[in-house]
Amino acid sequence: MSKLKINTFKDTKGYENFDDCGIYKLNNKQSIIQTVDFFTPIVDDPYFFGQIAAANSLSDIYAMGGKPLFALNIAAFPTEKLDLDILSKILEGGADKCNEANIPILGGHTIKDDIPKYGLAVTGIIDNNKIILNSTAKADDDIILTKPIGSGIISTAIKKGLASSKTIKSTIDIMNTLNEYASDKMYKYKINACTDITGYGLLGHLNEMCKGSKLTAKISFEKVTLIDEVITFAKKNIIPGGTKKNLDYNKKDVDFSDNYAEYQKYILADAQTSGGLLMSCPNENSEILIKSLNKISKYKSRIIGKFINKQNCNIICN
């Protein structure tokens, strides 16, 4: 694992390669890591929305190998249009998820707005020699994905009333599952780089890793774990606008093999909420890491490809 040199303005770091958190060096041993995220409801149940939003906010801390310390609520709510009980359930969901992560919510701020929004500002801490960036992948590293993808497509299907109750439940479970358990294993198995998969989708976040690390990633669609019914809905063009924008933005950097269908490209670009971690792991450690992860997680981690020396594109999908 490469050692972090923190030498930017006022000992801050994190924005150069679009890392998941900002980093502030406290001393020679530790740094503060800080993140904030919030969004509009993606499920109808306010309690589950609060849980998912909190898990999503905490994920950035875990992606860098950090330990969250505390959080602040950020909420917007149409108090004159919706019952305040809905807001209470959103906040309850966030609080319960933070309790699961063993951190307190110390307060926060709420404003009036026509559209509900919720999330957290999270402060964490990390040892300076354990910070994991998204820009330090190495050639021949395996690429490991820790959760199924497709929540953006499923969320669109839910809004259209097309998703089954089983798929809705499984998707909510995936989104409100903390990445804490996967994060705990990263330093032990000498992960070189990591990010979490959120709004930019698998392709977008992998592209960031490739750009920062000056490498090319080779991945296979067949190796990527998908949420149930994602292929069915993607084939029917039930695709969110954010996913379409992701593909448009990243496709110049991606070489798709001729057998890739359009729906497969959209799935790989699908905008996720509270997705899994995307790890760059030395080949000699990847199998034992996956075994360790799969003992403690309900979702199976898988190797979906590897990093290679820089080619004419950032990502090869074969």
Please, could you describe this protein's structure?
The protein has helices spanning about 45-65, 85-100, 150-160, 165-175, 180-185, 200-215, 230-235, 240-250, 260-270, 285-295; strands at about 10-15, 20-25, 30-40, 65-75, 105-110, 115-125, 140-145, 195, 215-220, 255, 275-280, 300-310, 315. Helix 1 runs parallel beside helix 2 (about 85-100) and helix 6 (about 200-215) packs parallel to helix 8 (about 240-250). About 50% of the residues are buried. The chain folds into two domains: about 10-130, 60s Ribosomal Protein L30, Chain: A (2-Layer Sandwich); about 140-315, Phosphoribosyl-aminoimidazole Synthetase, Chain A, domain 2 (Alpha-Beta Complex), CATH 3.90.650.10. A hairpin with an 8-residue loop joins strand 1 (about 10-15) and strand 2. The protein is built from ten helices and 13 strands. The model is unreliable at about 1-15 (pLDDT under 50). The strands form two sheets. It has a seven-stranded mixed sheet with strand order 8-11-7-12-9-13-10, with helices on both faces. Strands 1-2-3-6-4-5 form a six-stranded mixed sheet, with helices on one face. By secondary structure, the chain is α+β, with helices and mostly antiparallel strands.
SSE topology sketch:
Blueprint: E1 12-13, E2 22-25, E3 30-39, H1 46-63, E4 67-77, H2 84-100, E5 105-112, E6 117-127, E7 142-145, H3 151-159, H4 165-175, H5 180-183, E8 193-196, H6 201-213, E9 215-219, H7 230-235, H8 241-250, E10 254-256, H9 262-268, E11 277-281, H10 283-296, E12 302-309, E13 315-317
Parallel strand pairs: 4-5, 9-13, 10-13
Antiparallel strand pairs: 1-2, 2-3, 3-6, 4-6, 7-11, 7-12, 8-11, 9-12
